[in-house]
Amino acid sequence: MIRLQNLKKDYIVKGHKTPALRGIDLSIEKGEIFGIIGHSGAGKSTLIRCINLLERPTAGSVIVDGVDLTKLDEGKLQEQRRHIGMIFQHFNLLSSATVGENVAFPLKLAKRPKAEIDKKVKEMLALVGLEQHRDKYPAQLSGGQKQRVGIARALASDPKVLLCDEATSALDPQTTNSILALLLDINRKLGLTIVLITHEMHVIRSICDRVGVIDGGHIVEMGNVLDVFLKPQHPTTQEFVEQVADSSELRAAVAHEKASGERTILRVTFLGEQTYQPILFQTMQETGTVFSILQGTISRMKDTPYGQLVIELGGDAQQNRKAVDTLRQRGLEVEVI
Ligand SMILES: Nc1ncnc2c1ncn2[C@@H]1O[C@H](COP(=O)(O)OP(=O)(O)OP(=O)(O)O)[C@@H](O)[C@H]1O
Which residue ranges does the record assign to the ABC transporter domain (predicted)? Predict the structure, then answer.
């Protein structure tokens, strides 16, 4: 659905060239939720704004649904942009217009007939759960409700792609979760392709299928969220994963144990159905090994449950080795730390 090829963007500041994107290659499939995560200044906003050419790239191509947007004149570009909706961190609503008028705005610009606009506004407000608020003004709404208006407005033109520019960064955690749930619901109901940028791993973990990590204008790591999350390779990715891993307490516990002699400490990862099966208990019983738990998590990445336990084995060297081998044979991911 979206293909970025060798995309580059330089800003010229006081005669000096500042590279923001240094050659991005990316393919996003139809119907997928693709997340781009990076620190401040990494190039996230520039990248997402290049997808609808709000920012014109210095080089490379932006192909959306088979059309290279960089090759279009302004008129044709406007036409193609109708297929690409966008929502923003600070919502960008018209403060002097009601909720209904905000949602109707892009349809009025496109000179759609009044009856069609009224029908669409009603439909969109129902989709985001704001039917009761049609005649209110943005100032009378909460942050989460404002973002729902932003989503309804973005979807009013039936786009194929929704771009989300830090769409939950101004919201509290609970409201963030409700907006993420809404995006996931819309993705499923409408088959909409969603591209979002964020600096929060929680957002990626909750709803994305794949993720690209951007650093210094390069994509430094990309893959399925599950793979990237469980086996982060690049130091920047590892930092983001730490955001949600609560690893400082674990580091202290491991250091404490290791300080008192030779220890076998394992990080064991369970995925999907394994998460709820007694594989660990059975293995330890069979190999005659005892163990203690230093840290444990059961969580979910989009639809996949996963568990991660850090355990210390208390058997002799041979028992411990046998336990590690058996856990691996039973399909668990085991890392000796
Ligand atoms: N309009 C501009 N003019 C000049 N330089 C810019 C402009 N916009 C961005 N930059 C520079 O380009 C680089 C990438 O910025 P960008 O805003 O894309 O990063 P970001 O990852 O979205 O950061 P943040 O999370 O802080 O918004 C930075 O070095 C930034 O200073």
Answer: 2-241
Question: What mean pLDDT value characterizes the chain?
Answer: 92
User: In the prediction, which pLDDT does 204 show?
Assistant: 94
Query: What is residue 121's DSSP assignment?
Result: H
| C-alpha 13 – ligand 1 centre gap (Å) | 12
Q: Domain ranges in the chain?
A: 2-243, 246-336
Verify whether ligand 1 is closer than 6 Å to residue 41 (CB atom).
yes
Half-sphere exposure of 241 (CA within 13 A, CB side): 18
How many Cβ atoms from other residues are within 10 Å of residue 269's Cβ?
A: 17
Compute, in angstroms, the gap from residue 149 CA to the centroid of ligand 1.
Answer: 27
Residue 269 near residue 230, CB atoms below 8 Å: yes
Is the pLDDT confidence value at 25 over 70? yes
CATH number of the domain at 2-243, please? 3.40.50.300
Q: Which fold has domain 246-336?
A: Alpha-Beta Plaits (3.30.70)
